[in-house]
Specification:
- By secondary structure, the chain is mainly beta.
- The protein has one domain: Sandwich (Tumour Suppressor Smad4).
- The chain is built from two helices and twelve strands.
- The protein has helices at 3-6, 25-28; strands at 15-21, 40-43, 48-51, 59-60, 71-77, 84-90, 97-99, 102-104, 109-111, 115-120, 123-130, 137-144.
- The protein has a seven-stranded mixed beta sheet with strand order 2-12-1-11-10-7-8, with no helix packed on it. It has a five-stranded mixed beta sheet with strand order 4-3-5-6-9, with no helix packed on it.
- Strand 5 and strand 6 form a beta hairpin.
- It starts with a helix and ends in a 42-residue tail after the last strand.
- This is TRAF-interacting protein with FHA domain-containing protein A.
Length: 186
């Protein structure tokens, strides 16, 4: 056997691709401490923390409106499965975190979908998971976007649309109780 045949099979690591956007990035440079366009390894037993405190957070956002720890990501394997996943947890007492259209309050957590948009304040982060096999570590790969990730018409994540697609705050009847009428009445 040659050394090539005897070499161990290389494991691929799961990679979390994150594209960051903030409307004031050009002026305030809040992403200046992030390492863009280079993959970084994170040990599987470490929690990846994002926030403004560089002593606690590996992913530092330079903005006084960001919490010391804004959110964290935990890499894990589902029980009785080989599926590797990420869990996102809101660590901010003041700011809600939105994962697609799911609102997370303080200490709320959710499994990260394979592709989603995470928002808090004016921050928008597109997160995409690339599968891998390694149980020892995962990778992050950060990108910077010059254009909003959300389309203008989708920015209002705070108030979900009711089933009838009418936003109640636009009508003067707001605050009134619903009136039940017979289907034969006009």
């Amino acid at each position: 056997m040659t050394s090539f045949e005897e070499a161990e099979t290389e494991e691929t690591a799961a990679c979390l691709h994150m594209t960051f956007y903030h409307p004031c990035q050009d002026d305030k440079m809040m992403f200046r401490c992030l390492n863009f366009c280079k993959r970084e390894q994170v040990r599987a037993d470490e929690m990846a923390k994002f926030g403004r405190d560089p002593n606690i957070c590996h992913y530092n956002l330079v903005d006084t409106r960001v919490s010391r720890i804004q959110f964290s990501l935990q890499f894990y394997r589902k029980p009785n499965s080989s599926e590797l996943c990420f869990e996102i947890k809101n660590m901010s007492k003041k700011t809600k975190l939105f994962v697609d259209h799911v609102e997370l309050g303080y200490l709320n957590k959710i499994d990260l979908p394979w592709k989603c948009i995470v928002c808090f304040g004016d921050y928008q982060i597109l997160m995409e998971i690339q599968e891998g096999e390694s149980l020892d570590y995962f990778e992050t790969h950060l990108y910077l976007s010059k254009v909003p990730i959300l389309q203008e018409k989708c920015i209002r994540l705070v108030q979900p649309l009711p089933e009838n697609s009418i936003i109640p705050s636009l009508f003067p009847s707001q605050g009134k109780s619903p009136i039940e009428i017979d289907e034969n009445e006009s």
